[in-house]
Design a protein that fits this description.
The complex is a heterodimer of chains A (383) and B (534). With 383 residues, chain A is an alpha/beta fold. Chain A contains eleven helices and 19 strands. Classes of the chains: A alpha/beta (383), B alpha+beta (534). At the A-B interface, helix 9 and helix 11 of A face helix 5, helix 6 and helix 19 of B.
C-alpha cells in the first residue's frame, strides 16, 4: 500500500499494477487480486483520508486525526495518551474533551467545538460525535463531495452512565479499532460487574482488607467511581486518578466524594476503604503500603484466565471502555460502510473476518495501543 | 457441579496458597459425598480417560457459536486453553440444569464406546444446560488439562485441615494408584484401607538449589555430600514378595526396567529405597539422552537392554524391616542402606558414594570434578535430618555445576499462550556462521515479567516480516542462553540440540555482532562427547 502514500504518483502506479495483472488473466487468484486492486485504486482516486507515517491524514483539508508525530493541525478524538500527543501546532477537539487534553498537554493552541457542530476546512466538513469510550471522546465524521468517512478512535457501544453514549453514524468508509476484536470477548452488563465490585469491597471489609482496584486514571476510574455504592465506605484515590477527577468535576461531571491516599492520614480507615489506582502503580511501594489488601484489576483483558494469572491480581473484573466482539460487529453493520479500515487490536484476524462477511476491509498500521495493562499509561505532563 | 465450579473459581481467583487451601477445605466439608473424591482425584492430576477428541470439540464449538473454524482456531491460539475458549465463544445457555460433578463425569465416560453422533448430542446438551463456569469445568473434564495451581500437597493440607489428620499421613494415602471408581473418599482418606496397599510409595523429599556459598550452612561436619546424578528420581519397593518401581511423577514404572527384577529376590521384604534410575555402562553414567530412549517405552527390546542398560543408585532408605523409618536421622538410615546394598550384591544396585570433605573450599573443588564422573553437581544432606515430605528448605540442598551458556541473537518471536497470551514470549535464537545467523534453539523462560513486557514492546516496533503467527525481528537483541547439555541433532538446521535452554539474562551491553559463533557451540559439543566417552 505504500504507493498510496506518494500522493502524486499513486493513481498512476495503481493503473500500472492493474494492467500488469491483466496479463495474468489465467492466474487462479486473478479475480480476487483484481477486486482488491480495484479497491486500492478507488482508494487512491478518492483519497479523502490517507494512512501516512505521521497519522491519519486528510490531504484536501491538510489536517491529521490523532497523529503520532508532530503536525501543523491535529483533530483529536480524546485525551488518552496514544491519541492526544504533545507537539502539534494546532489542536481541535470537543468542548467536553478539552479540559483533560489541556491538563495533560499544558499550554497548547487548542480550539474546541460542540457535539455535531460542523467545521469546514478547505471545503471539507468535519464534525465530532460521541464515541462512548470515555467522557468527551469523539468519533470524527469527515464529508467531502458526498463521500463520508468516520474515524471512530476508541469506542464502546454500551452506555456507561457517565459519558455521552455512542452515536451510530452512517458512512461509506469506517475506520475502526479492534482491541477486543475476537469472539471470545463478550462483556457482561455493567450493572452485574459493578455489583461484583461492590460485593468484593464488602467481603474485603469483613476480612479487614483494603480493596485496591486498578483502573485507567482517565475514564475507567471515573466510570467505576460513578457506579460504586458510596455508603459502603470511604473511597481513596491515587494522585493520577484524583487529578483527573478534579478536572472532570470542574467540568460538571458528578462523582462521589473521594480523598487522596496521601491526604487520608487516618490509617484506621484503610481496611474499610476502596482505593482506586492506575496500572502504573502495580508492584510499586505505593501499593505495598496497604499491608493487608486484596488487589483487583478492572480491564477487558481480565476475561482471560491467563491474563488474570499473569497480573497476579486477587480478582479480575471484566470491565472495558472498548467495544466487545458483538459491539464491534453491530457498530460496523450500523454504519452501512462498504470499506472498513482496522487500526489497532487483533487487526489481521478481525480484517480477515470482515472480508469473509463481504466487506472491503483493510488492516492499517497505526501507533494506537488500545487498552493495555502491559505498557503503563504515561502520566507525564507537558514539559 | 455448581459447588465445584464455585470452588474452581475461588481457587483460580487467588494466588495465595492459604486461601486456596481454605476454599478446598470448605468444599470438602460441605460437598456432596460422591463429588468429594472426584474433586480430590482431579486436583491430584487423576483425570478420567478422554472420550471425545479435541478436533471434534473444536468443530462442534465453532458450529454452535456460528463462527468459521479458522476464527475459532485463531481465538484458541490466543486464549491458549481449549476449554476456556469454547466456554467463552458459546452463546449463553438456554435452560440451566443442575447436576453433580459425578453426573457429568459419568455422562462423559459413557461416551467411550458411543458413535460421534451420540457424543455430539451429549456435548451440545451439556453446553446448552450449563452456565459459563459449568461449561468451563465440563470442557476441562473432557480435555483434561487442569493447571489450576493446586498441588497434591495443597490438597493434602486441605484434607488434613478439614478432617484433623496429619498431613503426611494424608499425602501417603493420596500417593500410588487408586481411582474413585474402586473406593470411596472415606475408604481412601479416613479408613485403614490405605495401609493395605503394598505398592504405595512414600512422597519424595525434594531439595532446594543452593544459591549462597556453602559456608553459610555451618560446620562441614554436620553435612554429608554425594553426587547429584542426572537420571530420574525413583523409589524401589519390596513388599509382600513383590517389587514395585515408582518414578517421581508417581508413575508405576516396574515393567519399563526389567533389570530391577533381580532385586525382588535379593532385597528383604519390607524395604523401600530412594534413589536415581540411570543409564549406566562401563562403570559410568550414560548421558540423559540415552535414558530418554527408555523412558517412553513399556516393552523394552533386547537391543535396548544391551545398548542402554539401566541401574539404580540408592541414596536413602525409607522403610526397613517393614517399618517406616523416615523419622530417623539420615546417618542411621544411611548406615542400614549401606548394609542392605552390600548384602544384596546386585549389579543393578549401586550405593551413591559419599564425597568426603573437610572444608567447604575443598568441596567446592570437588564439585567442579563432578562433571568428569558424569554427575550434575553435588547434593548436600544434613547428617541428622529426617526424611521430609516434599520440598522443604534447610536439610537437603542441590549444588549444581554452573550451566553452559552462549550469547545469542533474538531473530523470531511468537506470542505465548495462556498466562502469556498477547505477549511475545516464545523466542528463537541464532548464532553466527560466517556472515549468517543460524537459528539453534527456542526458549520461553528466564526473563522477569517486566523484561518480557519490555522485549514485547520492542518486538512490536521492530518486526521485519510476519509468517503467520511468527514475526521475524531486527537481529539486534542479545541474550545469554544457559543450557544443561548439548547434543548432535539432524532435526535442526544448526546440527545441534540443547537440553533445558533458558534465558539467563538480557545482554543489553552487547551488540548482535558480539554474539557467539556456531563453532563455539560445536566446540562445547566436542567437550561433551569426550566426557561422555562417546
Amino acid at each position: 500500500m505504500r504507493f498510496l502514500q506518494q500522493e502524486s504518483s499513486g493513481i498512476w502506479r495503481a493503473c500500472n499494477l492493474f494492467s500488469a495483472l491483466e496479463g495474468l488473466a489465467l492466474h487462479e487468484e486473478y479475480v480476487l487480486k483484481k477486486n482488491h486492486l480495484i479497491f486500492l485504486f478507488v482508494l487512491a482516486c478518492m483519497a479523502l483520508i490517507q494512512f501516512t507515517e505521521r497519522g491519519i491524514y486528510c490531504p484536501q483539508a491538510d489536517v491529521y486525526i490523532d497523529p503520532w508525530l508532530p503536525v501543523d493541525k491535529a483533530l483529536i478524538t480524546h485525551g488518552h495518551s496514544d491519541h492526544a500527543r504533545w507537539g502539534h501546532r494546532h489542536y481541535l477537539c470537543t468542548h467536553a474533551a478539552r479540559p483533560v487534553i489541556e491538563y495533560r498537554l499544558g499550554h497548547i493552541a487548542v480550539e474546541s467545538v460542540h457535539w455535531g457542530e460542523p467545521v469546514y476546512i478547505h471545503g471539507v466538513r468535519f464534525s465530532f460525535h460521541p464515541a462512548g469510550h470515555i467522557p468527551g471522546s469523539a468519533q470524527i465524521r469527515v464529508e467531502h463531495k458526498g463521500e463520508v468517512w468516520v474515524i471512530s478512535g476508541d469506542y464502546k457501544t454500551a452506555p456507561d452512565g457517565l459519558g455521552e453514549p455512542f452515536e451510530p453514524l452512517t458512512c461509506h468508509h469506517f475506520v475502526t479499532e479492534s482491541t477486543f476484536g475476537l469472539p471470545v470477548y463478550r462483556w457482561r452488563s455493567q450493572s452485574e460487574i459493578m455489583q461484583d465490585i461492590n460485593t468484593w469491597w464488602q467481603c474485603n471489609q469483613a476480612q479487614g482488607k483494603t480493596s485496591v482496584l486498578i483502573a485507567y486514571a482517565l475514564g475507567k476510574a471515573q466510570r467505576i467511581l460513578s457506579n460504586l455504592e458510596p455508603s459502603i465506605g470511604p473511597i481513596l484515590t491515587h494522585g493520577a486518578v484524583e487529578n483527573i477527577n478534579e478536572v472532570l468535576r470542574t467540568q460538571g461531571l458528578r462523582l462521589p466524594p473521594t480523598q487522596r491516599v496521601e491526604a487520608a492520614l487516618n490509617k484506621h480507615l484503610w481496611p474499610q476503604a476502596l482505593v482506586l489506582a492506575p496500572p502504573s502503580a502495580l508492584n510499586t511501594p505505593w501499593i505495598s503500603r496497604f499491608k493487608t489488601a486484596s488487589i483487583g484489576i478492572a480491564s477487558g483483558w481480565m476475561a482471560l484466565r491467563g491474563a488474570r494469572r499473569r497480573r497476579a491480581a486477587d480478582r479480575g473484573f471484566v470491565l472495558s471502555d472498548h467495544a466487545d466482539w458483538p459491539g464491534l460487529q453491530q457498530a460496523i453493520a450500523a454504519t452501512g460502510a462498504e470499506y472498513v479500515y482496522v487500526t489497532h487490536g487483533y487487526t489481521d484476524i478481525f480484517t480477515q473476518y470482515l472480508r469473509q462477511c463481504g466487506l472491503q476491509a483493510q488492516a492499517v498500521d497505526t501507533r494506537f495501543s488500545g487498552e493495555s495493562l502491559d505498557v503503563p499509561e504515561p502520566e507525564t505532563e507537558a514539559p | 457441579m455448581r459447588a465445584f465450579a464455585e470452588l474452581f473459581l475461588q481457587v483460580d481467583q487467588t494466588n495465595k496458597t492459604n486461601d486456596k487451601i481454605d476454599a478446598l477445605a470448605a468444599f470438602l466439608t460441605s460437598a456432596q459425598h460422591e463429588d468429594k473424591l472426584w474433586a480430590v482425584a482431579l486436583f491430584c492430576g487423576r483425570r478420567p480417560r478422554r472420550t471425545v477428541s479435541t478436533t471434534l470439540l473444536r468443530q462442534w464449538a465453532a458450529e454452535a457459536a456460528g463462527l468459521p473454524l479458522w476464527l475459532f482456531e485463531d481465538s484458541y491460539h490466543i486464549v491458549g486453553d481449549l476449554a476456556e475458549t469454547i466456554a467463552l465463544v458459546l452463546p449463553p445457555a438456554k435452560t440451566l440444569q443442575e447436576h453433580s460433578l459425578r453426573y457429568w463425569i459419568d455422562r462423559m465416560r459413557s461416551l467411550e464406546h458411543a458413535d460421534d453422533l451420540e457424543r455430539k448430542a451429549t456435548v451440545l446438551e451439556a453446553w446448552q444446560s450449563l452456565d459459563y463456569s459449568g461449561r468451563f469445568i465440563f470442557n476441562k473434564l473432557i480435555t483434561g488439562n487442569w493447571r489450576v495451581g493446586i498441588s497434591t500437597k495443597m490438597v493434602a493440607k486441605a484434607i488434613a485441615k478439614a478432617y484433623a489428620i496429619d498431613q503426611n499421613v494424608v499425602l501417603h494415602r493420596l500417593s500410588g494408584q487408586w481411582s474413585p471408581d474402586d473406593l470411596s473418599f472415606d475408604q481412601l482418606i479416613l479408613g485403614q484401607q490405605a495401609s493395605d496397599d503394598y505398592s504405595k510409595p512414600y512422597p519424595f523429599c525434594l531439595a532446594y538449589p543452593l544459591e549462597e556459598a556453602p559456608c553459610s550452612l555451618g560446620a562441614p561436619t554436620d553435612w554429608y555430600a554425594e553426587y547429584k546424578w542426572d537420571g530420574i528420581r525413583g523409589q524401589i519397593i519390596r513388599r509382600a514378595g513383590e517389587l514395585y518401581v515408582w518414578s517421581r511423577g508417581e508413575e508405576l514404572v516396574t515393567e519399563k526396567y526389567p533389570e530391577y527384577e533381580v532385586l525382588r529376590t535379593v532385597l528383604p521384604d519390607g524395604t523401600v529405597l530412594d534413589g536415581e534410575i540411570i543409564a549406566w555402562r562401563n562403570e559410568a553414567p550414560l548421558p540423559f539422552a540415552a535414558l530418554q530412549t527408555r523412558i517412553g517405552r513399556k516393552n523394552v527390546s533386547k537391543k535396548q537392554l544391551q545398548d542402554t542398560p539401566v541401574i539404580f543408585i540408592a541414596y536413602d532408605l525409607l522403610e526397613y524391616q517393614g517399618r517406616d523409618i523416615r523419622h530417623l536421622p539420615f546417618h542411621q538410615r544411611r548406615h542400614w542402606l549401606e548394609q542392605l546394598v552390600a548384602v544384596a550384591q546386585a549389579p543393578c544396585l549401586l550405593l551413591s558414594p559419599r564425597v568426603p570433605f573437610l572444608h567447604w573450599e575443598a568441596l567446592e573443588a570437588l564439585r567442579l570434578d563432578a562433571k568428569a564422573i558424569g554427575a550434575e553437581g553435588l547434593m548436600l544432606k544434613k547428617i541428622d535430618s529426617t526424611y521430609k515430605t516434599g520440598r522443604k528448605r534447610g536439610d537437603w540442598w542441590k549444588w549444581k555445576l554452573p550451566p553452559l551458556s552462549v550469547d545469542a541473537v533474538l531473530i523470531y518471536a511468537q506470542q505465548g499462550h495462556g498466562r502469556r497470551a498477547n505477549l511475545f514470549t516464545d523466542f528463537t535464537f541464532a548464532v553466527w556462521r560466517g556472515e549468517e545467523l543460524v537459528p539453534f534453539t527456542k526458549s520461553y523462560s528466564g526473563l522477569t515479567d517486566e523484561e518480557f513486557r519490555e522485549v514485547d514492546a520492542w518486538i512490536r516496533r521492530n518486526t521485519l516480516e510476519r509468517f503467520g503467527p511468527v514475526r521475524a525481528v531486527r537481529p539486534e537483541l542479545v541474550f545469554e542462553i544457559a543450557f544443561e547439555g548439548i547434543q548432535k541433532s539432524t532435526r535442526h538446521k544448526s546440527g545441534i540440540a540443547l537440553r533445558f535452554p533458558r534465558m539467563l539474562r538480557w545482554r543489553k551491553d552487547k551488540k548482535a555482532t558480539e554474539a557467539n559463533h556456531l563453532k563455539d557451540l560445536l566446540r562445547l559439543l566436542g567437550d561433551e562427547c569426550l566426557e561422555a566417552g562417546l
